[in-house]
C-alpha cells in the first residue's frame, strides 16, 4: 500500500460527520470499531456517540472491592451520558452513589433509550424518576429492584413511559397496590412483572390487568387470600408465588378456575395451603402445564398425584422434594405407568 499524502489525510479527517457515521456503521468487527475510535479525537467522538449499550458492571476499574459495589458518582454518570448520546440500553446496577443529578441528562439524550437498569440505586428519588419519565418515552424495560421508588414515583414513570413491557420491582418495600394499579392501568403492553419480596402488595392492584401480562414473579410476597385480581388478565403463562404464606386454599384453587388456562410454568414451592383440593382444581383447569414446582408441599396425598397424572398430559417436569406423602403409588399415578412425563421426575425426598 502506498504512502498516504498529508493532503489525502486532511481530506479524510475533513469529511462531514454524516459520512463518518456511515463509514463507522459499515465496520463489522469490534476490533475495527475500536481502531476507528483510536484514530483521532474526532473519530473517537463518532465512535462514542454511536454506542448503543453501556453497562458499568463491565468496567472493572470502577469496582470498589473494599465497599463491595461499583463506585460511581453522579458527576461521572453525567459525563458518560454527555459522551454516549445515542444509548438504547443503560445499566447502573450496583451504583449506590448515583443520585438524581446523575440522571438529568436523560431528559436531553434519553429519547432512544429502550432499557435501563437501576438495581440497588437507592438514592434516586422522584426527581430522578421524573427525569427518566420526561426524557425516555420509548422505554420498554426497567429494573428498579431494591431501589427507593414508591407509589408516586411509579405513577410518574408509567404515565410517560407507557410502552413498558418488562418491569422489575423486586424488594421495593415502598410499593403498594396503589403503585401496581398505576402500572397496570398505564402500561397496557406489560408482559413481564417481578414483585418478589414486596411485602406491601396484596394483589388487589392487579384488577383489570391486560391480557398481555404473561409472566409474574411474586414469590416471598404477602398476597391476599384470593388470587382473583392477580389472575384477572387471563394471559399468564408463567406464575411464581412460592413462599406466600397468606394465600388460603380457595385462593390457590382459583388458579384452576379457567382464568389461568394458558399456564405453562407454576411455582407453588413452600405454599403451606396446597392440598389435594387445590391440586385437583389446578390439574383440571391448567391443561398446558409443562413445569410444576410443588417442593415442600407436605399435604398432597394420592388423590392429588392421581389428578396430576390424569389431567396434566403436557407436564415435562415436576419438583417434589419435601413432599412427605409422595410414595410409590403416587409415583405410579404421576405417569410412570402411563408414561405421560417426558423427562425424569426430580425426587429429593427429605
Number of helices: 13
Radius of gyration over all CA atoms, rounded? 26 Å
Distance from N terminus to C terminus (CA atoms, Å) equals 73 Å
Assign a percent range to the helix content: 25-40%
β content, as a range?
Answer: 5-15%
Uncertain spans = 337-344
Assign an overall shape. Answer: elongated
- Along the chain, the helix and strand elements come as HHHHEEEHEHEHEHEHEEEHEHEHEH
Number of distinct beta strands? 13
Main sheet attributes: strand count, strand direction, barrel closure = 11 strands, parallel
Strand order of the largest sheet: 1-4-5-6-7-8-9-10-11-12-13
Oligomer: single chain
Q: Could you tell me the mean pLDDT? A: 85
Alpha-beta content class: alpha/beta
Summarize the structure.
The protein is α/β, with parallel strands linked by helices and 350 residues long.
Protein described:
The protein is of the alpha/beta class and 350 residues long. The protein has 13 helices and 13 strands. Strands 1-4-5-6-7-8-9-10-11-12-13 form an 11-stranded parallel sheet, with no helix packed on it. Strands 2-3 form a two-stranded antiparallel ribbon. The radius of gyration is 26 Å and the shape is elongated. Residues 337-344 have low confidence and may be disordered.
Amino acid at each position: 500500500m502506498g504512502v498516504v499524502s498529508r493532503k489525502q489525510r486532511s481530506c479524510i479527517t475533513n469529511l462531514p460527520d454524516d459520512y463518518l457515521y456511515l463509514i463507522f456503521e459499515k465496520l463489522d468487527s469490534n476490533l475495527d470499531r475500536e481502531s476507528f475510535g483510536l484514530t483521532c479525537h474526532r473519530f473517537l467522538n463518532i465512535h462514542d456517540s454511536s454506542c448503543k449499550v453501556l453497562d458499568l458492571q463491565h468496567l472493572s476499574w470502577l469496582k470498589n472491592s473494599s465497599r463491595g459495589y461499583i463506585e460511581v458518582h453522579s458527576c461521572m454518570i453525567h459525563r458518560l451520558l454527555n459522551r454516549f448520546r445515542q444509548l438504547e440500553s443503560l445499566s447502573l446496577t450496583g451504583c449506590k452513589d448515583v443520585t438524581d443529578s446523575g440522571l438529568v441528562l436523560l431528559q436531553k439524550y434519553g429519547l432512544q433509550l429502550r432499557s435501563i437498569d437501576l438495581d440497588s440505586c437507592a438514592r434516586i428519588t422522584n426527581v430522578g424518576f421524573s427525569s427518566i419519565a420526561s426524557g425516555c418515552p420509548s422505554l420498554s424495560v426497567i429494573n428498579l429492584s431494591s431501589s427507593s421508588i414508591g407509589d408516586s414515583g411509579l405513577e410518574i414513570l408509567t404515565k410517560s413511559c407507557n410502552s413498558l413491557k418488562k418491569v422489575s420491582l423486586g424488594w421495593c418495600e415502598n410499593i403498594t397496590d396503589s403503585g401496581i394499579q398505576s402500572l397496570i392501568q398505564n402500561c397496557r403492553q406489560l408482559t413481564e412483572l417481578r414483585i418478589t419480596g414486596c411485602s406491601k402488595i396484596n394483589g388487589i392492584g392487579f384488577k383489570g390487568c391486560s391480557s398481555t401480562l404473561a409472566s409474574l414473579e411474586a414469590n416471598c410476597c404477602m398476597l391476599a387470600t384470593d388470587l382473583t385480581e392477580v389472575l384477572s388478565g387471563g394471559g399468564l403463562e408463567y406464575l411464581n408465588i412460592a413462599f406466600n404464606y397468606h394465600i388460603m386454599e380457595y385462593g390457590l384453587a382459583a388458579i384452576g378456575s379457567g382464568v389461568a388456562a394458558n399456564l405453562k410454568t407454576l411455582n407453588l414451592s413452600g405454599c403451606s395451603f396446597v392440598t389435594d383440593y387445590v391440586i385437583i382444581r389446578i390439574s383440571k383447569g391448567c391443561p398446558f402445564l409443562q413445569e410444576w414446582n410443588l417442593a415442600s408441599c407436605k399435604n398432597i396425598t394420592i388423590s392429588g398425584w392421581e389428578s396430576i397424572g390424569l389431567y396434566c398430559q403436557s407436564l415435562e417436569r415436576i419438583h417434589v422434594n419435601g413432599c412427605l406423602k409422595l410414595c410409590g403409588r403416587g409415583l405410579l399415578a404421576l405417569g410412570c405407568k402411563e408414561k405421560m412425563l417426558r423427562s425424569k421426575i426430580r425426587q429429593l425426598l427429605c
